[in-house]
Every structure is written in structure tokens, then in C-alpha cells.
Amino acid sequence: EQPSAPKPVAAPMRALPWGDLNFLQTTDSHGWQAGHLQEPQYSADWGDYVSFAERMHEKADSEGVDLLLIDTGDRIEGNGLYDGSNPKGEYFYDIVKEQHIDVICTGNHELYQADAAAREYNLTVPNFKGKYLASNLDYINPATGEQIPMAQRYRMFTTKNRGIRIVAFGFLFNFNGNANNTVVQKVEDTIKEPWFQDAIREDVDLFLVVGHVMLHGPEYKAIYTAIRSQKWDTPIQFFGGHSHIRDYKKYDSNAYGLQGGRYMETIGWMAIEGLGTSKKDEAEDYKELKVRASMSFNRRYIDTNLFGYHYHTGLNETTFPTEHGKNVSYMIRSARKALSLDYAYGCAPRDLWLNRAPYPSNNNILTWLENEVIPEVATNEERRDVPRLAIINSGTMRFDIFKGAFTKDTTYIISPFVSKFLFIKDVPYSSAKGVLALLNNAGPILESESVSSNQLAPPEQLSILKDSTSFLHSLDQVSTSYQTPMVSSRTEKSPDLIPGYTTQDDSGSDGDDTVHEPISFYRVPNCIQSPIAFPAEGDPEKVDVVFVDFIQPWVLTALEYSGAKYTAADVEVYTEESLTELMAKWIKNNWEHDC
Ligand SMILES: O=c1ccn([C@@H]2O[C@H](COP(=O)(O)O)[C@@H](O)[C@H]2O)c(=O)[nH]1
Predict the structure, then answer these.
(1) CB 6 within 8 Å of CB 39
(2) How far is the CA of 286 from the centre of ligand 1 (A)?
(3) Which residues, by range, are in coiled-coil regions (predicted)?
(4) Which of the listed residues 396, 526, 579 should we mutate to test ligand 1's pocket, taking the one with most ligand atoms within 8 A of CB?
């Protein structure tokens, strides 16, 4: 772990089930390879994960079973380790490639910006040559304009210990917000391609479908149906991503999906029993029948901290770390130093939560933005006195702010995007005033192939459809217990429960490797709005409608429904700086500097 990381947390644990074929999955890591430096529960770094994978490989080899590593995309955007350099990712790609990942694919974040997509093609694909799969993604060669596969479409391989024959795919959901140097083919079209139809007819022991795709969405349903139309009971293992939650889905008794969460808080663990053959099995008759009859699938969500890594490997502080892992931790430490990620802009006076405090409330990050930050930073000197409505989408915020130092790293953690404010001038107030309600509650009018209102809020809300409020902790207690390493006190034997994930999935409530007390989750609106420079009394006749660039298509649609038709030609730049830069400036000017 990193030198400033809080010490690991003692907690009651559930052991990992092992099978013939086992998997470790990362997804939506968003640059958090340094681990969480303010949360002991997730304080292990990528170097620790390298050690963990190496120790688990040793264990697998000694048992004669197999272990594969999976990554399902959205590795970038969301942490200073990636976002804090210019160009982005100066140290990041070399750190990520140190982990030996067996199947890896692209997320939507790798494609929002053309330069990020180019780095993906030029760096990550060769770094994981033969392992990087792009079943429905093409890249446009900037030199020739030619559309070429981002990487190979699928992979056939046999595992080393159990000889399990696998066909693996690597998908991205039907994403349409990509820059113009990539082309995402709809999954429903990809599965009609001859190469896919041939691949699903292969005689294998397992289909491995890896994707930046939600387990419960239409894309995996289509892939599942296509495979089952050819192979009625060949086991299928899906790995998903995108919605940032821990999730597990049963498609049928031989087909399951796992999704390991977000931000390096979770490593997904999957164990399949009843696959492959050993020398002994080969001698037996009716091998096929025997294997199918004893299939079982099991999952765990591993909290990323050294207490858990030691527990699962049966090792300790001295015996656990590998040389390779320690070197990777050192690479991260050097990169963080070179990027000055610990440089503090100011001192946060209180915790500000994205989804763990209700909106609006004093502890909600959106309330803070709406009331304190945006009214000051959404300003264009030439139109400073013109009344305006400044709108941002809640999904532009990615994480919480903890009381204490607000660093260069924190700015990218809470908002990595390069979005600037745009505006449409002199919009009749009678139309402008209806925009926010439409963005938040419009339902079908904001649903189309290219514009869907569920893309405005934080991705967790794609899957978490109602509030869940924890009765156990007030917010102050939650915050204290997160920041103080746990000391066993409840009974002599079992440590106190600390707040964390208490996942309910298709297999019940015993998936988390760490037994936690539940935390609250409050849904937030798609967008928030600050009225600025309004007259003391009465309504203005016209206002400037100011908004972050990401939401332009939604704002234009909402304005049209409110009776004011505008096009992209009416939209002008309002601020030269990004929301992230403006926020950092506000913090420098408004928060104390010494914590
Ligand atoms: O420029 C941007 C890009 C994205 N967003 C928000 O992020 C989600 C997607 O996040 P995932 O991690 O891929 O799930 C998107 O729906 C937007 O809400 C943004 O605000 N600005």
C-alpha cells in the first residue's frame, strides 16, 4: 500500500470458495491504482493486487486448478494518477500493464476523448497483446482513415492446469458518446457477424463473455440467447461492468454473471467447479456426464485491503508481498510524487457525500455545489450581471469529499471531466425556467437512441432504483468509523462491524468477503441548477442558460419542449476553464489552507 494509506481494517470475514476454474475481476477502476488513501477498507494499491494475484496463482498451481484475471474496462478518468498529467496517463499505462490480465476489454471512458482512445489503441492494446478483446469496437487509423478492429475480436485458449477449453469475447455496451475516432457496433448486430456465429459453434468447455456491459441489460441477454441457440448447456461465465455496483446474475443453471463494483474498492472472485479434466478424470468413462452433473458457480466480492489479502492467502505482512508487487507500489508512489497529487488546495470543513447524504442537505456535495460553488464560478466577465440559470448534471460528480485535506488528487476524484460551461444567450425566462424539471422528470421525451436521461446521473443509479437508508449510523459516526482503523471492541473474539457494502444479489446476501454494517444510499436528481444574478424582485424577461458541455443535447431537447427551439449553432463558450479547474480555484479561495 502507499505510505499515506490508512492501516488495514480488522473485520469478520467469509472465506473464498475455490473451484476448478477461478477468476479475479477488476472493473471501473477509474485510475484508483493507488488505492483509497482516506478509507482503510479499500487502502490496498495495484502493487498489493499484483502480489495478491501472484500468491493466488501459487495457491491455484499447488491445488492443480486454474486462475484467470479479468478487467472489464473504464480503467481511466477519475483519479489524479491518470488525470493529473498532461497528456493524461503519463505514468498510468506503465503501472496498469504490470498486472498479468488474461482477458481485458474497453469501457466507455476509454472512448469519450479522441486522445484517450488513441492511447488505448497505441498503448493498452499492445501492452495486453493477445489478451485485449474488442468484439464490437473499431478504431479509425488517423493516418489512413481506415476503420480497423480495436483489437482481436475473440480468443480461444486452453487453461494450463485443468486443460479447460475456452472461447472468450470482449464487449462494450451499446455506447454512442464516443469520440469520432472509434466505432461501436451494436451488440445485437455483432452477434449476427459470421465470425461470432462461428465462434459460438466451437466445441469448448466454457464461453467467457467479458464486457463493459451491465449484467441485467439487453446486450448480455442477446449474447446469452445467441450462445444458447447453438449450445444448450455449455457453461457460460459473464463478467460485467459500467454501473459501479457489486452484482451477480443467474442466467440459467450453467450461466452466471459477476460484476465487481468500482474504483478498486472490490476485486470480484468467481469459482466454477466441475470444469476440465485431470489425468484421473480422463481415465473415467462418461466424463461429459460426470462433469455436467457436478457443476457449481460461486462468487465473492473482495474488499481491497491488506487484512483481507492476508486472510485469503493465509500469509502475513512479511510473507505476502512479492518483489514485483512491491516494485509496482513504488512505481505508484513515485508517480504520485512527480504529479504532486498530495498538494492541498484547501481543507474541507465537513464530509460531503454524493449518495450517502440526502439531496438537498448540508452534507450533500450537490447542495454545496448548487449553493456555494456554482453561483461564484459560473461567470463570464462580459455577462456577469446578466441573470442566468447554471445547470450541471449530477453524474459530473463521481465521489465524496472527506473532511480534511482537499488535494490535487481529490479534484480529479470528484470530477475528472474536461467539461466547460457553454451557454445560450437571452432565452425567454418563460421557457428557460422549465428546463430543470424536464431534465429531471421528463421520462419518455428525453429517451432516444442518442439521448437518454439515465446518462445524466451517477452510474450507480442505473442499478439502484430506490433509496436505502441505514438505521445504524448517523453521518458523523459513519465518517469517523471510516477514518479510524478498526480496533476490536464488541466482544473478545469478533471485531466490530464497520460500515460498507452489504450486497443482495441473485445468490443471496453472503457474497461480500467482509461482513459489514450497511451504509445509506440516496438517489439524487439528474441535474441541479443555480439561479445567478436574478433581480431582487420579480422574474427576468430573458436569461442566459449556462450548462456543462456534456449535457448540451439534453438541454436543447428540453428547451424545445419548453417552447424555445435552438440548435448547436446558438451555443457559445461561457468559460474557458473546466468545471474541475473552476472548483479547485473556488476551494483555494474559500477553504482554510491548514487542516
Ligand atoms: O464528460 C462526461 C462524461 C461522463 N459523465 C457522466 O459519467 C457517466 C458515465 O460514467 P461511467 O463511469 O461510465 O458509468 C455518464 O452517464 C455521465 O453521467 C459526465 O457527467 N461528463
Answers:
(1) yes
(2) 51
(3) none
(4) 396
Backbone phi, psi, residue 10, to 5° = -85, 135
Ligand 1: residue of 83, 243, 455, 528 to mutate (most ligand atoms within 8 A of CB) is 455
Could you identify the residue written with the cell 457436478?
A: 294
User: 497: how many CB neighbours lie within 10 A of its CB?
Assistant: 18
Please state the rounded mean pLDDT for residues 72-101.
Answer: 98
Give the tens place of pLDDT for each residue, 348-400.
999 999 999 999 999 999 999 999 999 999 999 999 999 999 999 999 999 99
Atom of ligand 1 lying closest to residue 242 CA: 14
Ligand 1 centre to CA of 117 (Å) is 16
pLDDT in tens, 403-457: 999 999 999 999 999 999 999 999 999 999 999 999 999 766 677 766 778 899 9
Give the residue whose CA is nearest to atom 4 of ligand 1: 396
Residue range 228-234: mean pLDDT, rounded:
97
252 pLDDT band, cuts 50/70/90, is: very high
Instruction: Judge if the beta carbon of residue 459 lies within 6 A of ligand 1.
Output: yes
pTM of this structure: 0.93
| DSSP codes joined into one string, 535-556 | -SSS--SEEEEEEEGGGHHHHH
Q: How far is the CA of 549 from the centre of ligand 1 (A)?
A: 12
Place of cell 472527506: 402
Lowest mean pLDDT among 187-196, 225-234, 282-291, 397-406: 282-291
Q: Please give the Cα distance from 310 to 308 (Å, whole number).
A: 5
Helix (H/G/I), strand (E/B), else coil: 551: helix
Domains assigned to the chain: 21-337 (3.60.21.10), 343-464+523-590 (3.90.780.10)
- Written as nine digits, the cell of 40 is 482503510
